[in-house]
Amino acid sequence: MKKVEIDTFLKFQFVSSPTFSPDGAWVAFLVTTADREKNMYHKNLYAYHPETGKLLRLTSRGDCKTYTWTSGHTLLFSADRDLKKEEGSSPSTAFYELSVHGGEAEPAFQIPEAVSSIQALPDHRFLVMINYDNYKETRKSSYEVIDELPFWSNGHGFTNARRNRLAIFDRESGQLTWVADSWTDCMEYSLFGDLLLYRAYPFKQSVRGPKPGIYLYNMKTGETKTMLEPETRRTGAIELLNEQEAIVQSVDLSCTDFTTYCDFYKLNLSDGSLSLFAPYDYSVGSSVGSDARYGGGQSHKAVNGDFYFVSTVNDFSFLYLLKKDGTISGPLTKGSSCDSFDICGDHLASCEFQGMKLAELYVDGVQVTHFNNWLEQEYQLSRPEPLIFRAKDGYEIHGWVMKPADYEEGKTYPAILNIHGGPRSVFSDVYYHEMQVWASAGYFVFYSNPRGSDGRGSDFGNVNGLYGTVDYENLMDFTDEVLKRYPAIDKERVGVTGGSYGGIMTNWIVGHTDRFKAAVSQRSIANWISYEHSSDIGHYFVLMDLGGNTRTTPKLLWDQSPLQFAPNCRTPILFLHSDQDYRCYMAEGLAMYSAVKRNGCPARLCLFHGENHELSRSGKPENRIDRMKELIDWMDQWLKK
């Protein structure tokens, strides 16, 4: 069998965003593929008929962006085809309609705005999310105006005066009816009949806080009621159950810290009161990490008064059901990571990672697409072996170890410790491309979920103000345990890497120990004081996760900053960063590089142009390949020679 190579991911077909047709007869979904020659991705629309097993590819140009069902057999999707855009012209989004029964996609209509999502409503209407620019009449390309916070967003660039706006589009009249004013930033929403419940933050040229409000809009009367004022309490997922109540993820009004998970509350639509419905000490959505997925889909939905939701529990994410009586079911899916789903009647469609399989479409628990079966059939994959132990602090730590390809008893091998981002995310046993590449290159690979990770409750996930202490100790304990159980690892040839939070910990590790002989720090943070004022989420994330800010506790932030300990670094270290990473701005990577370079230890920095925080997961194909080459070459240089 072949070994996994860096460019093997170019053959992946990424399945995402399943939705049933209104009558439940079809399941539509998206499939994304990489194109190295054009250095981009193509996204096409597919449909599956559960009763007959028929699978149809509905588009072939690769330009499908967002879609919605308009009837039991007709879909509407947006694409750039036939839409002429001149430089400086107003944005416009073209939509096309096609039937699952065949025929060409026909132009349907254009909306003179930049539409990011669409959902069909009765009477030829659509609910659309629009990227709206309040400065579009005065904005110039020669300079940027900044008069609010945040002023940019990872993956979206400068966002000053730009808002996500909800609107009702009438297909027959071509009229747009705005749900809120142009300065209100709208987020997720839920529909039931004529009611639209949505989370939003209304702000104008000021500072947006971490706690949006909740609003109820009547699409028939045009009236809006405030259900929850902004900055009142933390909230998460929202779903209308009926015309009287909704499910809202929230915390108790007296809760002032940001470390606790949100429980499930009932929202009374008549008076806006929130009452605890079901305590829940986990997150909603999948936080299982992988660089082998592309695309989204819904993670929660209300059906006949029941609430279905994806949640990460321990090291895996499954679909669960919150019943009308307040009880929560066991897992409804089998895979290690349920990424998205849809429910219609008694039928469930889900997009899941199962074992070493890449994400595929499952209907009622049965795999119905097989786009990526070739991977297990043709390639030699390293199977993650679970390793559970009790760390010195008394907490149980979960991790995995992957053996090198062509592993032979009696031989010794170099190894790489990989640290996940977040910190509230998790590693699991799903396919992770970069780690398969490392194993194919002759490395042991080991990784874990230390304290601060998701899936184990608020206590385990709380590292507020503790960065570089309990998490660092867990990682070192895990390394010790792996080296003890796997004597084939040459302890003199162990490297460490990680991205985002994993990059922070890599920076921290090289300032506190010389046990690792090489390091690769990716999209990292060096100084929490500068991070607070440069990251798109810094002004509230630092307060939420570091236990203070530069105004109140600068010493606390500096004590948790790897830059303080950079003079101790003697480990050869490579920094990988992107110049449009506004989550962990490139100044952080440059600062750490500059600091360790002065020590005389080998250091190198690769700054990828035009990429953001998602380089390793959805960056341009060529840049993803170059990133992996740089990483492997660095590890080979210091761990193999």
From TrEMBL:
Listed GO biological process terms: proteolysis
Keyword Hydrolase: yes
GO molecular function annotation: serine-type endopeptidase activity
Sequence ranges assigned to domain Peptidase S9 prolyl oligopeptidase catalytic in this UniProt record: 432-641
Keyword Glycoprotein (UniProt): no
This protein's UniProt keywords: Hydrolase, Protease
Superkingdom of origin: Bacteria
Family: Belongs to the peptidase S9C family.
Protein name: S9 family peptidase
Organism: Candidatus Copromonas faecavium
